[in-house]
Amino acid sequence: GENVEQHPSTLSVQEGDSAVIKCTYSDSASNYFPWYKQELGKRPQLIIDIRSNVGEKKDQRIAVTLNKTAKHFSLHITETQPEDSAVYFCAATGSDDKLIFGTGTRLQVFP
Amino acid sequence: GAGVSQSPSNKVTEKGKDVELRCDPISGHTALYWYRQSLGQGLEFLIYFQGNSAPDKSGLPSDRFSAERTGGSVSTLTIQRTQQEDSAVYLCASSLRLRQETQYFGPGTRLLVL
Prior knowledge:
The structure holds two protein chains of two kinds.
Chain A: E1 4-7, E2 10-14, E3 19-25, E4 32-38, E5 45-51, E6 56-59, E7 62-67, E8 72-77, E9 86-93, E10 99-101, E11 105-110
Parallel strand pairs in A: 2-11
Antiparallel strand pairs in A: 1-3, 3-8, 4-5, 4-9, 6-7, 7-8, 9-10, 9-11
Chain B: E1 5-7, E2 10-13, E3 19-24, E4 31-37, E5 44-50, E6 65-69, E7 75-79, E8 88-95, E9 104-105, E10 109-113
Parallel strand pairs in B: 2-10
Antiparallel strand pairs in B: 1-3, 3-7, 4-5, 4-8, 6-7, 8-9, 8-10
């Protein structure tokens, strides 16, 4: 089955800096890669997703890139703000249709 | 519109007791998922349901865990003879269909086994 690894586990940045979170996956048949944000004590919420027929997708300050050959995808947050502080999870849908999550990255943005 | 709801929001039980956790998915969503999130950890897949198909139970950690989905809507996750290591937040999510769809999460049930 699918295995997703996520790095780093924690990330601290100064407000205004960029943050990058990286994930790798094992199932070459995976074709859907969402990113979820989970604020403390709240439910995970989708912030952006990318499908295998696209290499990059942007939504304002957030972008995701996908390299299918290397089987890795990354989340980029530019001009970080304190409200970006949360745990971010990447995920991948394998050939068995299950969404497998990474272990999460705790992002702290210091004002 | 109404999102995914779960009840109870918190449950404290004694070791060895059975518990039932409920999930109400978004109306019209055919796929429903259960996850477990231990403190400070990621999301562990437990089980999913898609329409009337047999559920994928491959993530259930032991035979003490079971789930059902009645009428293609509400789902109940049952944990029998609870153990302290079962303490976690149990999250339910639903999506319109199974493949490549946004999953919408409920607020979770925080289970504490004493």
